[in-house]
Amino acid sequence: MMTQNNIYLEVYHKLLTHFGHQEWWPGESPFEVIVGAVLTQNTSWCNVSKAICNLKEAGLLNYDSFKMLSVDEIASYIRPSGYYNLKAKRLRNLLDMIEQLYFGDLDLFLSDSLGSGRNNLLSVKGVGPETADSILLYACQQPTFVIDTYTHRVFSRHQLVDEETDYDSMQDLFLSKLPEDVELFNEYHALIVRVAAKYCKKSKPLCSECPLQGVND
DNA sequence: CACCAGGCAAGTA
DNA sequence: TACTTGCATGGT
C-alpha cells in the first residue's frame, strides 16, 4: 500500500486492512454503553460481559429500571466485573448527575443539548477522561477520541508518541491529525484495542507479528 | 503461583 | 506537583 499523507491515518489503514471492521461498541443501546464504560475500568471485557448479562437477564439494563436500584442492589448484579462496590457507587453517581442536570431525561443527556456533556461527565466522582470520552463517542455519537492504556502503549511502543505523553496531549494530537469523523474515531479506537490485546501485551515488549511492525521507519 | 485486564480517586511527602 | 495505594473478579 502507498504511504498515507500522515502516520496516524497510515496506522489506521494498516489496522483496518489487517483486522477489518470491528462493530463497536459491543452493546445494544446507549444506556448499555454507559454502564459498560464504567464497568470496564481497568477490567477485561470478558468479566464486564458477565455483569452486563446479569443485568440484562434481570431486565434492569434500561434507564428507568436501573435508576431505581440502590448501590447495594447494583453491586450484587455487577460482581463479576470486579471492584463491584466502587463501580456501583460510580454508576449511582452518574445516574444522579443525569437526574439532576438533565432532569432525568436520558435522551436529553444523549443529545447533549446543554452543550457541556464532557464537563458534566467529568464532574461525576468515578468518571475520568477515558470513561467520559467513551460515553461521548459510543453513546452520544460525539466526535471525540478515546485514549486508554492500549492507545498509549501501542503508540509509545512504536515510537509514535513520547512515553511521558499525558491523556489530553495525546487526544489533542489525534484530534488535530485526523478528520473530525465519528465513524473514524469509533473504528480507530476499536482497532487499537484489538491490535493491543493481540500483539501489544504489557509483559511482551516486542512482537514481530504485529501489523504495525516498522510503521515508524 | 504471579501477573494482568478498555481507570479513577484519595492519601502521602 | 509527583508518586503510591485501594478497589476485586476471573483468565492465562
Secondary-structure topology with pairs:
Layout: H1 7-19, H2 30-39, H3 45-57, H4 63-66, H5 71-77, H6 84-101, H7 106-111, H8 117-122, H9 129-138, H10 149-157, H11 167-177, H12 182-199
Helix pairs in contact: 1-12, 2-3, 2-9, 5-6, 10-12
The protein binds a DNA duplex (13 and 12 nucleotides) through residues 36-38, 40-48, 50-51, 79-87, 90, 125-131, 134, 146, 148-151, 189, 192-193, 196-197, 201-203.
Summarize the main sheet: none
Q: Spans of 5+ residues with little confidence (pLDDT < 50)?
A: none
CATH topology of the largest domain: Endonuclease III, domain 1
SSE string: HHHHHHHHHHHH
Mean pLDDT: 95
* Helical fraction: 55-70%
Would you count the extended β strands for me?
Answer: 0
Query: How many distinct helices?
Result: 12
CATH class of the largest domain: Mainly Alpha
Indicate the CATH architecture of the largest domain.
Orthogonal Bundle
Structural class: mainly alpha
Quick one: CATH superfamily of the largest domain?
Hypothetical protein, domain 2
Distance between the termini: 15 Å
Shape: globular
> What's the Cα radius of gyration?
18 Å
Tell me the β content: under 5%
Provide an overview of this structure:
There is one protein chain. The chain has 217 residues and is mainly α. It folds into two domains: 7-23 and 145-199; 30-138, Endonuclease III, domain 1 (Orthogonal Bundle). It is built from twelve helices and no strands. It has helices at 7-19, 30-39, 45-57, 63-66, 71-77, 84-101, 106-111, 117-122, 129-138, 149-157, 167-177, 182-199. The mean pLDDT is 95.
